[in-house]
Amino acid sequence: MIKIKNNNDYLANLTRILCNPDFHRALPDKSPAPLLKAPTRLRSVASAVDSKAVCAKTLAELRELFAAGQKGVKRGLKIPFTKICVQKRFDEIESAAFALFAVAEISGRDQFEIFRGAENIFKSLAGLFGMEKVRLAPYFLSSGKLRKSGVFSCGHYMQDDAFRLPSNLREKIIEKLLTGDKKSLKKKNKVVKILRPGSISERLGLNVIAQEAAKRQLSTVAFQHLQRAKTPVKSGLAAPRLNTLLIGPTGCGKTYITKCLAEILGVPVAFCDATQYTETGYAGACVEDMLVQLQTSAGDNPKAAEYGIIFIDEIDKIRAESVGQSHNSNRDVSGLSVQQDLLKILEGDKLNYEKYRTRCLSEYSFNVKNVLFIAAGAFQGLVDIVNDRIKTKRQIGFNDQATLTNGQPEQVNLLQQVRPQDIIKYGFMPELIGRFPNVIALDRLTREDFLGILDNPRTSLVEYYRDFFNKHGVELEIPPEFYGEISANAIDRDLGARGLNAAVEGFFSGLVFDLLKFKKAGERQKVNIMDYTRGGHLKELFG
After folding, report:
1. Residue 39 burial (CB < 10 Å; 0-12/13-18/19+)?
2. 111-118: Cβ within 8 A, 24+ apart
3. Half-sphere exposure of 357 toward its Cβ, with a 13 Å CA cutoff?
4. Residue 76 has pLDDT above 50, yes or no
5. How many Å apart are CA 356 and CA 358, to the nearest integer?
6. Same fold yes or no, 197-441 and 447-542
7. What is the model's pTM?
8. Which class does domain 197-441 fall in?
9. What is the phi/psi pair of residue 483, to 5°?
């Protein structure tokens, strides 16, 4: 009989039951059944494990634990797992799915992959309850209370993402499970805690490698944005515009850092590409569609959209050939005209616009005063403009912040010294640049940064391929020198993080081909990555 003394006992028993190796071996296989019957020798080995008996025993222990948890809560114990199940009115199958999710998050690294993803959770539940996955899928993805509860998904997520969580929601639930619900008293007073800039920067650092200066600046902007949403600015006081422009080479993380920031803040966000917009009346999207996209992401809470984030990517692609040209001559419908259309959104208060819906013209109203606009672009060629300005200043006797190396400006990151006049010269209206008071330059990723990306399980594609090969019976040994060679390859590509991912995928695509060609079915192999790169063939390694 299971006895629960505290929350740690409950989680320890939960991990013990679901991480039992016998239970893992008893789970049904995802691969299709072979066309030919297995040899007698193989069938005798497989029959050594009675799958139904093992799964039935695991389910019985799990039911006993659930009952012990309910008794413990009645005695006054703080067991968040049981409280969440009761609060969401989970039935037995939903409680078991929640247990699989919890164990996947709080257990060790090896056990983490076993219940990761909808497919593995369906497989585990099918083994526990003796059901087919076909019967389980609609139960959770359509009519089940689990999907609607918000524990495993959000309302705007697609069905195949039902078991993928936004990081802030997952961390909130896991923190509650591990701490024993110690913060429950604060909820009675409805105290909304706003993350300070330091906390936002730390959370960004979990997924974003390097770019320390950019993370600090963005964290400050995000903190002020959240503060404005909680406490409106007093009437009579001027409120600063927090619009931010991110400048940096391709693959340095401009879009990625914004996505991570939006997840941390938990506000609606609309990701827009500037290349799709044209002047109103021409083929293409108009800038008011950004507001429609933001309202759609807010779902049933339109008020939250007024404090959301609109991210405009590739904004450098709407540069104008000549900023000073007349609007009616040499019309630039995807450049200068789009810049002019953006002015009314970036500096407006309450914006009224019209959209055609089902053959009728509808009028909409949106308060953009508190929307945070973040624009980003690579701005190729802007470095030359900054360099020319610095040289000119030096020639006429002005001092600047450029570091001299043998009489030449240091080429570490000239974008850190960008000025509004440089961006105007690049091809942007002064009125538009003036509406982006925060200009943040991101650094080009170095070899050390690539090593950090590869070493972080949250950002490394290597971890994905390690799991992929493990599922196919191959245990990869990846020494540190492999990361060094991949990083050097990414440096040569000069595409930032995209070049790093391309280098990883390019290497492992060949390994996958050789694996499927030479790997013997039913056997587990251990392969050192460096032996494959130097030897050139898996056939020799597999014998």
Report:
1. exposed
2. 111/15, 111/19, 113/467, 113/470, 114/19, 114/24, 115/18, 117/163, 118/160, 118/162, 118/163
3. 8
4. yes
5. 7
6. no
7. 0.59
8. alpha beta
9. -60, -35
